[in-house]
């Protein structure tokens, strides 16, 4: 019996060694372990001594063996619907475009299309007498009715420039842009009005030489110039403006608007209110009795100071009509202020 008890103690000691991660055979003499210490260590109570290990192991195996898919937006939405009820989505606002109250025609039925007859260019100056002091300009109307989002970005750009240049620096920067614009328009005017320009006259100010180089290819497509820097007045809608140029562009008679920019404007969307401005000039010219012809098309030419090729945005009679309607809406908005 004593021998049997000793064998059992040795077997228990070997089992403890293996459970601690020691490979079998590492300890050749298991009798070095003190059996008395082993039994003293077991007397220490543990908080897990009362746990049903078999049941706990079964529960762990069940959890680990189960496979659950990760949540997706759809499953989360389904779960929310069960907890809080279905989501009530509001109907989107009506997408129908707003129409002007008075849809005034762009063309003048009293005028017809007239062929180009070479002659002196129209260059009517804008004269404001006592009767016309209250007639607003196209530029003023567009400024006073600028959409909030467009005004926000413009103001943010202005603040950023002031932060970089300071108040005085930004003022000087703005005046320089205005001066360059005037020089550029003057250089374009000289190009169309001088029949045989001399070498000295062909030279343009250094500040605008890049702009002229930018539009050089466009100038080759322009013929039959009829008006340069000429005032127009819409007698029915009562607004004024000055057109940059009226000429044939690739065979189509257009109101042409020259623009300068430091950033590329490859699409019409990048020109903001310029299409409305051109449409307003077209309508005013067609209404003005100083011009015995009418125009159906518009052209926006964006020139760049670095001389890179200008972007042209041609508005035929079909494309210009939506901008004419938007212009009429802005005109009504201005009248209501």
UniProtKB/TrEMBL annotation:
It is an enzyme of class 3 (hydrolase). It comes from Cyprinus carpio (Common carp). Belongs to the MGME1 family. Its main location: mitochondrion. One of its GO terms (cellular component) is mitochondrion. Its EC number is 3.1.-.-. Residues 212-296 form the PD-(D/E)XK endonuclease-like domain. It is found in: Mitochondrion. It comes from the Eukaryota. This is Mitochondrial genome maintenance exonuclease 1. Residues 1-19 form the signal peptide. The keyword Translocase does not apply. The active site is at residues 244, 257, 259. Keywords: DNA damage, DNA repair, Exonuclease, Hydrolase, Mitochondrion, Nuclease, Signal. The keyword DNA repair applies. GO terms for biological process: mitochondrial DNA repair; mitochondrial DNA replication. Metal-dependent single-stranded DNA (ssDNA) exonuclease involved in mitochondrial genome maintenance. Has preference for 5'-3' exonuclease activity. Necessary for maintenance of proper 7S DNA levels. Probably involved in mitochondrial DNA (mtDNA) repair. One of its GO terms (molecular function) is single-stranded DNA exodeoxyribonuclease activity.
């Amino acid at each position: 019996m004593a021998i049997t008890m000793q064998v059992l103690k040795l077997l228990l000691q070997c089992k403890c060694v293996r459970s601690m991660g020691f490979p079998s055979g590492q300890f050749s003499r298991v009798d070095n372990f003190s059996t008395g210490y082993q039994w003293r260590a077991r007397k220490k109570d543990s908080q897990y001594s009362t746990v049903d290990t078999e049941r706990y192991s079964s529960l762990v195996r069940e959890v680990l063996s189960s496979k659950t898919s990760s949540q997706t937006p759809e499953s989360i939405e389904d779960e929310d619907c069960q907890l809080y009820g279905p989501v009530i989505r509001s109907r989107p606002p009506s997408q129908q475009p707003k129409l002007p109250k008075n849809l005034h025609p762009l063309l003048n039925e009293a005028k017809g299309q007239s062929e180009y007859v070479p002659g002196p260019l129209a260059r009517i100056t804008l004269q404001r007498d006592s009767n016309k002091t209250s007639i607003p300009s196209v530029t003023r109307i567009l400024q006073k009715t600028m959409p909030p989002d467009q005004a926000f970005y413009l103001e943010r750009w202005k603040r950023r420039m002031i932060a970089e240049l300071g108040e005085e620096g930004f003022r000087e920067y703005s005046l320089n842009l205005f001066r360059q614009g005037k020089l550029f328009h003057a250089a374009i005017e000289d190009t169309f009005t001088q029949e045989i320009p001399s070498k000295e006259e062909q030279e343009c100010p250094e500040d605008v030489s890049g702009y002229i180089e930018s539009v050089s290819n466009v100038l080759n497509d322009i013929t039959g110039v009829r008006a340069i820097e000429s005032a127009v007045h819409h007698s029915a809608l009562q607004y004024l403006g000055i057109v940059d140029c009226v000429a044939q562009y690739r065979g189509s008679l257009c109101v042409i608007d020259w623009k300068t920019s430091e950033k590329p404007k490859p699409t019409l969307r990048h020109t903001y209110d310029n299409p409305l401005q051109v449409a307003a000039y077209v309508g005013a010219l067609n209404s003005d009795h100083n011009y015995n012809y009418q125009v159906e098309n518009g052209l926006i030419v964006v020139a760049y100071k670095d001389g890179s090729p200008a972007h042209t945005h041609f508005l035929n009679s079909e494309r210009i009509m939506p901008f004419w309607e938007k212009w009429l809406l802005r005109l009504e908005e201005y009248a209501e202020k």
